[in-house]
Amino acid sequence: MSLERPIEARQEWMGVLARASREQLERCWHETSTDAPFVELKPPETGLVMVRARSGGNGPQFNMGEMTVTRCILRGPHGVLGHAYVAGRDHRHARLAAAFDALLQLPEHRAAIMDRVVAPLAAEQRRRRAARWAAASRTKVEFLTVAREAG
Amino acid sequence: MYVAVKGGERAIDASLEMLARERRGDTSVPELSIEQIEQQMSLAVDRVMAEGSLRDRKLAALAIKQARGDLVEAIFLLRAYRTTLPRFGFSEPVDTAAMQVSRRISAAFKDVPGGQLLGPTFDYTHRLLDFGLMTAAPRPGVSSAPMPGAAAGPEQPPMPHVSDILGHDGLIEAEPSHGAEPGDITRDPPSFPVDRSTRLQALSRGDEGFLLALGYSTQRGYGNNHPFAGEIRFGEVAIAFVPPELGFEVEIGDVELTECQMINQFRGRGDEPPRFTRGYGLVFGHGERKAMAMALVDRALRARELGEEPGSPAQDEEFVLSHADNVDASGFVQHLKLPHYVDFQAELLAVRDLREKAKVRGAGE
Prior knowledge:
The structure holds 2 protein chains of 2 kinds. Chain A has one domain (6-137). Helix content of chain A is 46%, strand content 25%. Chain A contains 4 helices and 3 strands, in the order ααβββαα. A 3-stranded antiparallel beta sheet of chain A has the order 1-2-3. The longest helix of chain A has 31 residues, at 107-137. In chain B, β4 (228-241) and β5 (250-267) form a beta hairpin. In chain B, α2 (34-40) packs across α4 (57-66) and α4 (57-66) packs across α5 (71-82). Chain B has helices at 9-24, 34-40, 42-52, 57-66, 71-82, 162-168, 196-204, 208-219, 288-301, 317-323, 326-334, 341-364, and strands at 54-55, 87-90, 100-105, 228-241, 250-267, 275-284.
């Protein structure tokens, strides 16, 4: 993840943290064992995001239906703000994701948390996708055309 | 005439107690957990999310448990719950072409880029009861552990939409590249005529049985539009959201969707060469029958726009959209159970009066 493009890097780790399970983040937080102070600017709150889609997959937008989402904003060390928006209603998940987001924006924490938290979680999510594809691709149809023999 | 309607409190309390007992059933049988419903009744969970118009697997499973498996009641519970939550905003439109697919088939083309993947489907089962499932026992080949080596394998190759392949040659109508701000029936009740965005929202949360019957009716000749299942895919798509306080897009998770692209009756008009037309279905979860029915009805409802003479129920927008919602329908049908004592007394008096008058007239003749 490039530091010259801080927004892209942040988008990537926020996506990884959102997809992780609460249990995974809990374990990572325990291992990080930081005593950095955090203030809840916006305590975890569950609400809805209306999912939009496009007619025909690529046409004009329509509102498809809503999903539950939990958000949280924490103020961490040096006043840095950690944000989280995660699918579902798990307040602890959102709080942990926001805390990691804050620490990841601080140069003194970033490398260690990228190595010990974000990279392993991203790798696990990649493995999960590969395993899903492996299962789906086994059901791929190999069509055979039966041709009448000449003569 | 005044009729007292108070006095039911004790009966209601006892009824609620009885409901709780019936829900639990025989207490010597272990109670269902939410996880069991979520994992092993997953298609019921999907239907409740789709028609409840709220994607949350755990809440849908809870609703099914509370409703004793009555899915329309569970849908009602989910709809009621969603009204208690604030709305943070709208997602970026999902990119279904980038779906991580579990299933992807086309009935129009044999060879599609990315291939045809059957995924988990009932299509090739024999529909014979499997008495092996009568008892809970480990089954060979059934494990949630990934296959050895699978996780180290490649990720999914690109899986373009079949309709886009036809679209390159102009053989199918192009979707307009942009539209007005889409309608939202959760905020503004539809006022007819409505645009396609409003119709698609109403159909996506509409009752599966109702849409299935309407879709079927088009196939049987009531507004036929010669459909081919151009493509059906089921899998996960990433949901991206732009929090206003950040101003950039973040992915908040993945959501399971089923998409159906119907390729329909072609037509040419004026200078336009003939091309196929489209119907679209998209629902939460794995709901193939629903997505297909939705695509058939979406196409039928485009009749006027495509210059067809609408004459069948499935082509009547006001009829379809006003009756597709099972929470609305269930509420209005079931309200007939509420006390109508006063109304009925009035009718009774009127009938007695008419009968009396008829008797007098009869005697006079």
